[in-house]
UniProtKB/TrEMBL annotation:
The keyword Lipid biosynthesis applies. One of its GO terms (biological process) is phospholipid biosynthetic process. Transmembrane segments: none annotated. PANTHER family: GLYCEROL DEHYDROGENASE, GLYCEROL DEHYDROGENASE 1. This is Glycerol-1-phosphate dehydrogenase [NAD(P)+]. GO terms for molecular function: metal ion binding; oxidoreductase activity, acting on CH-OH group of donors. It holds the Pfam family Fe-ADH_2. Keywords: Cytoplasm, Lipid biosynthesis, Lipid metabolism, Metal-binding, NAD, NADP, Oxidoreductase, Phospholipid biosynthesis, Phospholipid metabolism. It comes from the Bacteria. The keyword Transmembrane does not apply. InterPro entries: G1PDH, Glycerol_DH. Coiled coil: none annotated. It comes from Saliterribacillus persicus.
Length: 403
């Protein structure tokens, strides 16, 4: 069964048959087809949401293509911080709301994850659909509805809208800086622990779970792991594998209407670091670059605890289910690849492999391991470990170190 057939079945199982899936176009030079697509769908006045980088890389050319195609284009250059970064916070959201004219019938997100999240939210609030033009295979959120925003300095994910279509131009994606492709791979690696955390939440906290969604997300992960060398070359064939995996993972989240299969303890650690850096007004790291590293840490922590955890101190709320499923939990944890293997894979991609490579201190890692589970009301291995440990989770916990 191919992905689309599986998704149709998932929509039935999850009672989401009314959901409209985005049209997906992954091809070299597919951007040139956007004007015809807009004309066919009767879009006449569009806003292009860009930042300085994506304007230079892609936006400028797309604006010309659209204008030549008889479409009215307004460019909104999103506010950048002193670190030349766009942040999905109140200031930038309001900027897009203000600069989008009343007669706008479509917003086009030209960029990576953050620009998509800003557009997704603003479009949803103004009831204007949006089109996705990823400029890098850097994140798995293009096709989902969740917009992770920084509101009053705190990271929160709000369910908004998915794009009507994605135009993933392989020419654009292969020309993206290699660290962005490495970050996309890091976001994919996170599925090792997010899928396990989702399973644990089903066993222990009886949270909603779907086997088909989990196995589709696992396929995205496996396809990337089987093609590591190809992806590491950042060429068309490799980038295509990665962008398809990222898009498909996003579609699974879209159908479920939550991000569980692709976001567990590793994302909570990453969000914790992100908020700390915002607090200190430091330049932000790429989302997937952090997730790649936090995945190695979470795996290290889980593997240690699977073999050392004292089962006689269980919280009464979870005691029965933990005891019932304990051997399966341990087995799943033992089946995870070692953190060292994942670090090696990250290095192959040219991405950071340790907190140190991200200039994250040992103290912050330690603090996040003890507190990040409070960021979301979700059952994860990290939450259970924190509930049942006697002392703070030590870091480095296993063989991983900051050396
Ligand atoms: Zn992610």
């Amino acid at each position: 069964m191919n992905f689309n057939e599986e998704i149709q079945l998932l929509m039935k199982e999850w009672e989401m048959e009314n959901i409209v899936l985005p049209e997906i176009f992954v091809e070299k030079n597919i951007m040139e087809q956007i004007p015809a697509y807009l004309t066919k769908n009767d879009f006449k006045n569009v806003v292009l949401a860009v930042d300085d980088n994506t304007w230079q890389a892609t936006g400028d050319r797309l604006a010309t293509l659209l204008t030549d195609g008889g479409i009215e284009v307004k460019v909104v250059r999103l506010h950048e911080t002193e670190h030349q970064q766009v942040i999905a916070d109140e200031k930038t959201l309001v900027q897009l709301l203000i600069e989008t004219e009343q007669n706008t019938d479509l917003i086009i997100a030209v960029g990576s994850g953050t620009i998509h999240d800003i557009v997704r939210f603003a479009g949803f609030k103004m009831n204007i659909p949006f089109l996705s033009v990823p400029t890098a295979a850097s994140v798995d959120g293009f096709t989902s509805k969740g917009a992770p925003l920084i509101l009053k300095g705190v990271k929160q994910t709000i369910q908004t809208a998915s794009p009507i279509a994605v135009f993933a131009d392989l020419k654009v994606l292969t020309e993206a800086p290699p660290e962005l492709t490495a970050a996309g791979f890091g976001d994919i690696l996170g599925k090792y622990t997010s899928l396990l955390d989702w399973k644990i939440s089903d066993w222990v906290a009886e949270e909603p779970y779907n086997e088909r969604a989990a196995s589709l997300t696992k396929q995205s992960l496996e396809q990337c792991m089987e093609n590591v060398d190809k992806i590491a070359r950042h060429d068309e064939a490799g980038v295509e594998v990665l962008i398809r995996a990222l898009i498909e993972s996003g579609i699974v989240m879209l159908v479920l209407d939550f991000s569980r299969p692709a976001s567990g303890g590793e994302h909570h650690l990453s969000h914790y670091w992100e908020m700390d850096m915002l607090d200190k007004n430091l330049k932000q790291h790429l989302h997937g670059a952090k997730v790649g590293v936090t995945t190695t840490i979470i795996i290290d922590v889980y593997k240690q605890f699977a073999n050392q955890w004292q089962l006689n101190e269980l919280d009464p709320k979870y005691k029965q289910n933990i005891e019932k499923h304990w051997s399966k939990i341990v087995e799943e944890i033992n089946n995870l690849p070692s953190p060292e293997i994942l670090q090696e894979t990250l290095r192959k991609l040219g991405g950071p492999d340790t907190p140190q490579a991200l200039r994250i201190t040992k103290e912050l890692v330690q603090e996040s391991l003890n507190n990040a589970q409070h960021l979301r009301d979700r059952c994860t291995g990290l939450l259970l470990i924190n509930l049942h440990k006697k002392d703070d989770i030590p870091y480095p916990i296993g063989e991983l170190s900051l050396k």
